[in-house]
Design goal:
103 residues; mainly alpha; Serine Threonine Protein Phosphatase 5, Tetratricopeptide repeat; 5 helices; 83% helix; globular
Amino acid sequence: MRHTYAALYQLEGQIHGNAGDFEAAIERIDAAIEAAQQFGMLPAQWQLLALAAGVWDQAGDTAKATFHREAAEEIVARIQDRFSDGKLRSGYVERARATLGAT
């Protein structure tokens, strides 16, 4: 059950971010990242870091946005090394880069 906390915190963070409450959004997204780390959920970690980067962009803090985006890219690199199928790896990395570019 505790593994669902990351998704719940993510949703709360998105709601706060959409409402313009960036401080509360980051607080909830940070909690989601921590929960994802506790359970070794690498895909969720990079996606949450990308979400945090987008919130920091909206809040006008490009340094923190860049930090989170680079952390997400590092996790994507770790994940891509786990794929034995080159086509699947390429597809995953392309999707991740598109997501990171859109934040």
